[in-house]
Amino acid sequence: MIEVRNLVKRYGDRLAVDNLSFTAEKGRIYGFLGPNGAGKTTTMNIMTGYLGPTSGDVIVDGRSMLEDPEGVKRFIGYLPEHPPLYIDMTVSEYLTFAAELKKIPKSRQKSEIEKAVEYTFLQDVSGRLIRNLSKGYRQRVGLAQAILGFPEIIILDEPTVGLDPKQIMEIRDLIRSLGREHTVIFSSHILSEVQEVCDHVLIIHRGKLLANGTPEELERQMRNTTLELTVRSSSLEQVKNMLLALPGVVSVVEDKNDQPGQVSLKIETAPDIDPRDDIFYACAENRTPILTLRGLDMSLEQIFLSLTADNVQPADSSVFNQFGKQEVEEL
CB of 10 within 8 A of CB of 166? Predict the structure, then answer.
């Protein structure tokens, strides 16, 4: 297990990471989501020891990154967004060099390299210079380096960038197989990929951790905090003011409805309050018949867009974190 404890990172006047905390458990695959500049790469660099925090710590198997960085790094394999490849080496030479850096015993190096090559489908190019490989193959060489020795924690920053559709499917299968016995954390801009592969999702935006849960939990939570309401009324403003006066209603936005004498709205609610009873009684008291009232089913893409909208408001629940408590920002 890897535990991130109260990480803070400053660059001059800029607060890049602000008291960030979460845990990732063995045998799970975590998707790390966020728009460009959200904090993914900075967080991953701190978690892998490439970047030191201003304060806070990363704990792996009871070891502190601050107190025992070399010991912690033995548990982690890392694929940066731009793999650090030596292009004048062959694939085999590079992986042998990486095995030496990782202090894999000589007696195991050959078998471990062969296993990494097989997992990343590099058998046909193992004797070629890296400089002569395509971008997709270079990405796979970087991935082979990350899983070399099969450490307990594997952190991948955009592992499918530059791969063709067939290669992407192969890497997804690899990530699934790794997730059975390892902790896998990977970032991606392909939301369908995250939804298909991940057991758990972390969403960050503008330096803040907005959501932390399984895809199913996020969908259920968003469904419970976003309502669609259609009523029979000729006054949009009257209905909006009536709803905004109810406890637990955060915002009310008009939805498209071409039917005369009807008003449709989307209602955002606080995650710890269910205002549907109050909506029913308020509409009855104001003689505003309800035609439909339902929770809004949302895909992971819709959840991501909703949470990373510029006007998003703080939330507090087991899935959506208070913005002021867990914040990161990518440089």
Answer: no
Tokens 């509409």 locate to: 283
- The residues near 313 (Cβ < 8 Å, ≥ 6 apart) are 250, 251, 268
Q: Do 156 and 77 contact (CB within 8 A), yes or no?
A: no
User: Helix 300-307 crosses helix 215-225 at what angle (to 10 degrees)?
Assistant: 60
Domains (ranges, CATH) in the chain? 2-214 (3.40.50.300), 220-299 (3.30.70.260)
Tens place of pLDDT for every residue, the chain, 331 residues?
Answer: 899 898 888 888 888 777 788 889 988 999 988 777 777 888 899 999 989 999 999 999 889 999 999 899 999 999 998 888 999 999 999 999 999 999 999 999 999 999 999 989 999 999 999 999 988 899 999 999 999 999 999 999 988 877 888 888 888 888 998 998 899 998 887 777 887 888 898 887 767 787 788 877 776 666 557 889 999 998 999 999 999 999 989 999 998 888 999 999 999 888 778 899 999 999 999 999 999 998 766 666 666 666 666 544 433 334 444 333 333 333 3
Burial label, 13 (beta-carbon count in 10 A; 0-12, 13-18, 19+) = exposed
Helix (H) or strand (E) holding 290: strand 290-295
Alpha-carbon distances, residue 160 vs 52, 80, 125 (angstroms): 27, 12, 18
